[in-house]
Design brief:
Blueprint: H1 4-27, E1 43-46, E2 49-52, H2 53-56, E3 57-63, E4 66-71, H3 77-86, E5 94-95, E6 100-103, H4 109-146, H5 152-186
Antiparallel strand pairs: 1-2, 3-4, 4-6, 5-6
Helix pairs in contact: 1-4, 1-5, 4-5
Length: 187
């Protein structure tokens, strides 16, 4: 039975990775309120090196729809502003000489519905990833059974355990998607 533990643990770990990837992707979807993860993919030139914003500035949320980017080194302010302008964020930075304010615009109802569809699509991609992990685990279990590592009854029990892990991961993905949809639609 010890041979199967790595198979189930790997499957569970890989399904968790799919959930984490989903959360990261959904964090990049602007929901009409300030969220520091919107800036995660933006890097600015800092002494000749592309550096992520969160490593060169503090990012705070002073108001529900405002992000404040305060560089640790004031000389980097212009480069940070350039990086934000060049990004696909679609928000114009307001530079006051010491910090940059990003005002997140209110979303229209139509845009909220589009974003909710995008969230569902990301959720579906995560579920496909979870099902692929399940398929691989089931294949590994069947190979182990053919190799004589465990009996047919044990195989059946292990397949049930794999399905339970898959169902739990699917519910988790659904919960993550539902939370993000709620955040977007309520604004």
């Amino acid at each position: 039975m010890a041979v199967t533990e790595p198979i189930l643990k790997d499957a569970q770990a890989n399904m968790k990775k799919a959930e984490i990837a989903l959360q990261r992707e959904l964090g990049n979807i602007r929901a009409g309120r300030a969220n520091a993860s919107l800036l995660n993919r933006i890097s600015a030139d800092y002494y000749g090196t592309q550096t992520p914003l969160n490593q060169m500035a503090s990012i705070t949320i002073p108001e529900p729809r405002v992000l404040m980017v305060t560089p640790f080194d004031k000389s980097a302010l212009k480069e940070i502003e350039k990086a934000i302008l060049a990004s696909d964020l679609g928000i114009s930075p307001a530079n006051d000489g010491t910090a940059i304010r990003l005002v997140i615009p209110q979303l229209t109802e139509e845009r909220r519905k589009e974003l909710a569809k995008d969230v569902k699509a990301e959720g579906e991609r995560a579920k496909v990833a979870v099902r692929n992990v399940r398929r691989d685990a089931m294949d590994d279990l069947k190979k182990g059974n053919k190799a004589g590592n465990f009996t047919d009854d044990q195989l059946h029990d292990l397949e049930d355990q794999t399905q339970k892990i898959t169902d739990a991961a699917g519910k988790s993905v659904d919960g993550i998607v539902a939370d993000k949809e709620k955040e977007i639609l309520e604004g």
